[in-house]
Design a protein that fits this description.
- It is a single chain.
- The chain is of the alpha+beta class.
- It has two domains: about 15-80, Arc Repressor Mutant, subunit A (Orthogonal Bundle); about 90-245, Chorismate lyase (3-Layer(aba) Sandwich).
- It is about 25% helix and about 30% strand.
- It has helices at about 15-30, 45-50, 55-65, 95-100, 155-160, 175-180, 200-205, and strands at about 70-75, 75-80, 90, 105-115, 130-140, 145-155, 185-195, 210-220, 225-235, 240-245.
- A six-stranded antiparallel sheet has the order 4-5-6-9-8-7. It has a two-stranded antiparallel sheet with strand order 1-2. A two-stranded parallel ribbon has the order 3-10.
- Strand 8 and strand 9 form a beta hairpin.
- Helix 1 (about 15-30) crosses helix 3 (about 55-65).
- The longest helix is centred in the first third of the chain and has 14 residues, at about 15-30.
- The radius of gyration is 19 Å and the shape is globular.
Length: about 250
């Protein structure tokens, strides 16, 4: 029987391997073509593919099984659930590749882009600048077509000239900055807030006015410590939860 072929992954040794593998495989599953096989390779073959141990691979598969993306049968193997709809928790632990994985089950529409005045509350991140370039996008769940979040990226003008707007309908801004614009993103600082939907957000996400929204602000810095992009993302509160993993194994100083 033909088995599903997942994408490759460049591992970051500073992050949990099982987490990176589960997110990469999740992206491959959600982004697969309709004619792709539903059967996954064996644990051993998957472990070899990702360059991890079988125990690490098993932990990654357990994560996807709990999410409802795969089903495992004794002696028969592991199969992708063809109609699975993940709960899509927002996970802020990870690399650029895990950011891509988070959005792999979504389709993106570029709403508009162009110069805007620097918002007063973000002026400290863009010293000496009066304007930045705004890119606004709306994301829908690929399976249902339901809007799930909308994002505005405020990009340093020097960098924005190298951003291909068409690429933003396929990839997150972080990946576009790194792989297309040639920016070295050295650090991302995220802030999570609970908010109520204002009129533009309620209209874009098709939710009642003042309904709960998960609002994330992410500031991306280059190797010089300069803010090159600030993302403001508005997630539907009924579709997303906030999850973070902490490593408690290190001895306290």
């Amino acid at each position: 029987m033909t088995v599903f072929a997942p994408d490759s992954l460049e591992l970051n040794r500073k992050l949990p391997l099982w987490y990176q593998v589960s997110q990469s495989l999740r992206a491959s599953i959600l982004g697969r073509s309709p004619e792709a096989p539903l059967r996954l390779p064996t644990e051993e073959r998957l472990a070899e593919h990702y360059g991890v141990s079988v125990l690490t691979m098993r932990q990654a598969l357990k994560e996807l099984e709990l999410e409802g993306l795969i089903t495992r049968f004794r002696r028969r193997g592991t199969f992708i659930e063809p109609k699975a709809r993940p709960g899509a928790p927002v996970r802020l632990l990870g690399s650029v590749d895990t950011i891509v994985a988070q959005q792999s089950g979504e389709t993106t529409t570029l709403l508009d882009h162009g110069p805007v005045a620097v918002p007063p509350e973000l002026a400290e991140h863009f010293p000496g600048l009066g304007e930045v370039v705004s890119f606004r996008r709306l994301r829908h769940d690929r399976a249902s077509g339901e809007p799930v979040n909308w994002a505005e990226n405020l990009v340093h003008p020097e960098i924005a000239d190298r951003v291909d707007p068409a690429a933003l309908e396929r990839w997150p801004m972080t990946k576009v900055l790194r792989d297309i614009a040639g920016v070295t993103v050295s650090r991302i600082a995220n802030t999570v807030q609970a908010r109520l939907a204002d009129p533009p957000t309620a209209q874009l996400l098709r939710v009642p006015l003042l309904s709960p929204i998960l609002h994330i602000t992410g500031v991306e810095y280059d190797e010089r410590g300069r803010a090159v992009d600030i993302a403001r993302i508005h997630y539907r509160g009924d579709r997303f939860s906030f999850a973070v993993t902490m490593d408690a194994s290190a001895e306290p100083e």
